[in-house]
Amino acid sequence: MIDRRIGTSWIWLAILVPLTVSEAARLPDWAKRIADTAPEYGDTVPEHPSRVLLSEISLIVQQDGKLRVRRRTATQALSWIAADVGLGVFHFDEDTEILRSRGWHLPAEGKAKKSSGAAMDLSLDDAFLSDQKVRFIGLDGVEKGSLVFFEFEAIEEPEQLAHLELFHEGAPIEVARLTLQTPPDWSVRYAWLRNLGPEPSVREGVRIWELRHLEMTEPEELGQSPVDRAPILLLSFSPPPGIEVGPASIPDWISLAHWYEELAAGREAVTPEIAETARQVLDLSDAGFLPGVRSTGVYVRDQVRYVAKEIGIGGYRPHAAGQVLHQLYGDCKDKGTLFRSMLAAEGRESYPILINTSLSDTVSEEVPYLGSFNHFVVGVPVPEEIPVPAAFRPAMIEAGELGPLLVVDTTDEYTSVGYLPEGLAGKTGFVIAGDESTLVDLPAIDTEANRIEKELEAEIRPDSSVTLRLETVRYGVPAAATRYAYRQSVREYRERAERTLLQRWPQGTVKDFAVVDETEDGGFIETVKMEIGAPPDPETAELFQLFPGALADLPRVPLGRRETAVKYGHAITLRFETTIRGFASRSATPGGDDKEGDGWSTGSSFERDGDALQGKWEMTLSRLRFEPDEFRELKRMWSSARRSSSAAISLAP
Question: How would you label 491-521 residue by residue, b for 16+ Cβ within 10 Å and e otherwise?
Fold first, then answer.
C-alpha cells in the first residue's frame, strides 16, 4: 500500500558516529547494523525534523499467488518536534493476515526499548464503508536523536499478480529498497514511473531494486507535490503456462479489460425503474444528443449521494445499477454504472474509463495494473454528424478506433458536465471496450476551458460618485472551485465577497448581490451592483481602476530564494471588459499595452465614444511550469500582466 504522508527534505551535514553495542543490544540484527553506523544528529537546526535511514519492502510470491510482505523502516529524529517518528503505520485490508507488528526505540542516550501494548487498527476514513485499514504502533519518549525501527509482516491475497510501490516517506530517505522473490520459472516485468530507476541486482534468486539519497523538498505554493515527484516502481509477475493461481495474471491491457468486463458483467443492466427514470430526465431536458447526456449525468451527479462501500472485490466491482438507483448512494463506479445504464435505456452507448484522480504518472504502457487507477468515469461516443458546442469541447478526447468520446465524471458534484475536474486533466486513463480498449491521455491545456470573464459597467455622476455593475462568469476549474465555496455556505461566501469589494472601494455600498450557481454551459455567475460615494476631494482622490481585481485569479509567489519549479494547476484565460460613462471631460484615454512570451500573452485596448470609455483586457496562460532558470520569463509575465491591467482614470470633473 502507499504511504501518502507529505513531509519535507533534509540535506545531511552530519558525520558518521557509531553507537555502542550495549546501547543497541536489544535490537534485531537488521536494526542493530543501522544503529551501529547511524549519522550524528548534530546541534544545528535541521532542515527537516527527521530522516529515514532505511525504507525496505520485501515481497515473496508464494506458489498460490499470495504475497508474503515485510516492511521495515529505520528513522532518526532530528528535532524535538518529530513526535510522529514514533508512529509506525501499515496499510492492509480484509484479505490480509498480519503476522507480526513490532517497533523499537533507541534513545540518543540509553538502551533500546521494544514496543509494548497492543497495536491499533483503524479504518482509513469514517466517511466510507471500506475494508481498507491502517495498523498503528506507537512508541513513547521519542526525542531529538532517537532512532526508531518498525517491522511489519503479513500475508496478502491481491486481486492481481502485481504491485505498485511509491518511494515516499514524508522525509529524506538514505536507502530505499524493494526485494522480490518468486517461485522458480515465474516471469517478472517491471517499469519505473516518473524517474528512471536502477536495474535490479540478483542474489540467490532474489531481485533487489535499491535507491539512495532520496531528498525531500518542502511543499511550496504553486509547486509540485513531493508525493508527485517521488519515484514509483511497478511490478508484474506471472506463473508458468498451465499454472493457475488465485490472483489474476494479466499479461497486457486487453486482458485487463476482459478481466474487468467479466467482473462487472451485467451490472449496468437496464431495469424498468431505470428506463422510467431516464425517460423522465430526458423529458425535462433540451432536445439533442449532448443536452440529453448532460441532463442524465447531472441527475446521477446530484441525486445519487457519494458513499463508498468497498469490501473485498467490492473495491473493483460496481453494484448493480438498479440497486444504486433504489438506494440513491454509491461510489464512483456505482454512480458511473448507473449513468451508463440510463444512457443505455436512452439507446446511447458508453464505456468505463479508469483513471487516477489523486496521483500522477501511475500508468505504464508495458505493465498493466488495475491498482494504477482509483477512479471511474464514463466515456460517451459522440456521433460524427453531431457538432460539439464549446461547452462540451473541454471534456472531449480521441480514443483510437472508438472515435471521439465525451468524458463525464458523475462523482464530482462541482464540475459541470462538459468540463474536466482539475484532478483528471492531463492524466492517463484506460477506456474499457473489449478488444478496442485503449489507454488515453485526457487534455491538460485548454485556456478557453478554464476562463474567467468580467464585465464592468460604471457611470460617473457629476459629483464624482459612481454607480457600477460588475458581472463575473467562471468556467471550468475556476467555476468548480467557486461553486464549492458557494455551496459550503452561501452566507459566508457573500460576506467574503462583499468584504473584498469594500476593501477595494471603502466608500461603496453593495446594493445587490446575486449568484447563478450553474448555467447550461457550465458557468458560475456572480453579479454585484454598487454605489460609490463621491470622494471629499476628487482632484486628489485615488484613480478609479478600469480593471479592478483583474489579477486576483493569477497567483504569484516570491521567487528570491526559491529553488523548485513554479507549477500552475491549469491553463487559464482572464478577460475583462469595462464601459465607463460620464467620461467626456475627464482623463485622457489610456493607451493600450500588448506583450507575449513563451506560453503566455497579455494586452489591453481602449476606445472612446462620446462620454463613454470602453476598455478590454485579456491574459492567457497555456504554460504550466517554470523551472528556476526560467524565473526571468515568469517575472516578465507577471510584470506585463500587471502593467497591462493597471489602467486608471481620475474622477475629477
Answer: eebbeebbeebeeebeebeeeebebeebeee
pLDDT at residue number 585: 64
> What is the distance between the alpha carbons of residues 146 and 62, in angstroms, rounded to a whole number?
37
Pairing between β-strand 162-166 and β-strand 232-238 as defined by DSSP bridges = antiparallel
What class does CATH assign to 260-441?
Answer: alpha beta
Amino acid found at 302: D
Tell me if 56 sits within 8 A of 179, measured CB to CB: yes
Residue 492: C-alpha distances to residues 328, 487, 496, 498, 506 (Å): 29, 10, 6, 10, 20
Burial of 469 from C-beta contacts in 10 A (0-12 / 13-18 / 19+): middle
Q: Which pLDDT belongs to residue 313?
A: 64
How far apart are alpha carbons 452 and 97 in whole angstroms? 52
144 near 78, Cβ under 8 Å?
Answer: yes
Enumerate the domain spans of the chain. 29-238, 260-441, 451-649
User: Can you give the pLDDT at residue 650?
Assistant: 86
Domain 29-238 has CATH 2.40.110.10: no
Cα 646 to the center of its chain, rounded Å:
34
> Left if phi > 0, otherwise alpha if psi is -120 to 50, otherwise beta: which for 328?
left
Alpha-carbon gap, residue 417 to 423, rounded angstroms: 15
Task: Pick one of 1.10.1370.30, 3.40.630.30, 2.60.120.1130, 2.40.50.140 as the CATH number of 451-649.
Answer: 2.60.120.1130
pTM of the model: 0.89
Give the separation between CA 52 and CA 73, rounded to whole angstroms. Answer: 7
- Cα–Cα dist 236/164, whole Å: 9
Q: What pLDDT does 2 receive?
A: 30
| Cα three-residue angle 548-577-391, rounded to 5 degrees | 115
Buried-exposed string 606-625: b where 16+ CB fall within 10 A, e elsewhere: beeeeeebbbbbbbbbbbbe
**How crowded is residue 341: how many other Cβ atoms within 10 Å of its Cβ?**
26
CB 566 within 8 A of CB 444: no
pLDDT beneath 50: ranges in the chain: 1-25, 126-129
Can you read off the three cell numbers belonging to residue 281?
430526465
> Phi then psi for 242, rounded to 5 degrees?
90, -10
Compute how many other C-beta atoms are within 10 angstroms of the C-beta atom of residue 403: 11
Query: What confidence score (pLDDT) does residue 7 get?
Result: 32
Q: In this predicted model, what pLDDT tens digit does every residue of 233-264 receive, in sequence order?
A: 999 999 999 898 999 999 999 999 999 999 99
Given a contact cutoff of 8 angstroms between Cβ atoms, the answer to whether 38 and 53 are in contact is yes
316-350 tens-digit pLDDT: 899 999 999 999 999 999 999 999 999 999 999 99
pLDDT of residue 20: 35
pLDDT at site 642: 96
CA distance 328 to 310: 16
Dist CA 167 CA 232 (whole Å)? 6
Q: Quick one: cell of 101?
A: 507488528
pLDDT at position 524, please? 98
